[in-house]
Amino acid sequence: MTDRDVINSLRAALGFDPKENEKEKGIRCLEEDFYWAFPDGIDDHHSGWTVMYEVEGGQQHPCTNVLKYWPVLEQDAVLKIRLVHYLVKRPKSRNRWELSKFLGNKMMNAFPDRFDYTFLEIDAAENASKLHALKLLLA
Known about the structure:
Blueprint: H1 3-14, E1 27-28, E2 35-37, E3 41-44, E4 49-56, H2 64-67, H3 69-75, E5 80-87, H4 94-110, E6 115-121, H5 127-138
Parallel strand pairs: 4-5, 5-6
Antiparallel strand pairs: 1-2, 3-4
């Protein structure tokens, strides 16, 4: 299964049309000529939240795919991000994905009402309930 297949299945689980809602874009730094973040997928939602998808297959430091949204949230005081972080291949050491979850939780505390983090592991029993809870938040 490719990263694109994973993202499309996540979109379908959250009620997005995999083909119609996707936007491929980077999130530009307002003061410099570079992009802070290139998510694997993006969906805008009528609730004002932007759903960002990060799929980890070969990344050895998945925490960077969480942390890169911090400066984005600092520079844009209106943007609201729901980050769906899906681990399809576990890193060599557990501390790397635990650090991702730690950073996601810290960012939710730092940006209440503007950042939400959902961590999913391949074949984890709780994935369905986490996706259902996220879908309810988006309803």
